[in-house]
């Protein structure tokens, strides 16, 4: 009985491995994985038959970096693209005996900071502007009011919502008034006056 069960298990394993290899998708020889901000790791998952050439090309198809690798075993290489300009790059991997193996596309884009607030303004009268700020992350923020390039008022808040009417008695016009909201890291955003 044990022999029959062992034989059935072996047959199932054989058929499942055969089905996996016959699915049409061969195992990749080369993979590229992002391992940090603008950092990538290339893995060559087979023993190379000759020199492996990794060419990093920009959008104009100009080679910005070339790496010639001689290895007699499976290997990996790390690439830091932090000093390159923003844009799309391609990693072209070629084996000197086999030819081109793969072409990976990589996009270097600026890191988008999540905005920790929503703000809106409204002109209430000829010398009064209302400001309403929703503090999404409940961290301390600073409101700065400018007349042109000169700061005329600064105020901190950390509540979930901040609302206030500002009366500008000493200004001739509200045309040059602008509001800036700044978080504790110094990241700021101007809010237009409507």
Describe this structure in words.
The chain has 194 residues and is mainly β. The protein has two domains: 28-108, Immunoglobulin-like (Sandwich); 117-191, Immunoglobulin-like (Sandwich). 10% of the residues lie in helices and 52% in strands. The chain is built from one helix and 14 strands; from the N terminus they run H-E-E-E-E-E-E-E-E-E-E-E-E-E-E. The strands form four sheets. The protein has a four-stranded antiparallel beta sheet with strand order 4-3-6-7, with no helix packed on it. The protein is rod-shaped. Residues 5-25 have low confidence and may be disordered.
Quick recap of the structure?
This protein is mainly beta and 194 residues long. It has one helix at residues 2-21; strands at residues 30-36, 39-44, 52-57, 63-69, 75-80, 87-95, 99-108, 117-125, 128-135, 141-147, 150-157, 161-167, 177-183, 188-191. The model is unreliable at 5-25 (pLDDT under 50).
- Estimate what percentage of residues fall within beta strands: over 45%
Given the helix and strand composition, which structural class is it?
A: mainly beta
> In percent, how helical is the residue content?
10-25%
How many individual helices?
1
What would you report as the Rg, rounded to the nearest angstrom? 30 Å
Q: Mind describing the biggest β-sheet?
A: 4 strands, antiparallel
| H/E element order | HEEEEEEEEEEEEEE
Mean pLDDT metric: 82
CATH class of the largest domain: Mainly Beta
Instruction: Let me know the number of strands.
Output: 14
Shape: rod-shaped
CATH topology annotation of the largest domain: Immunoglobulin-like
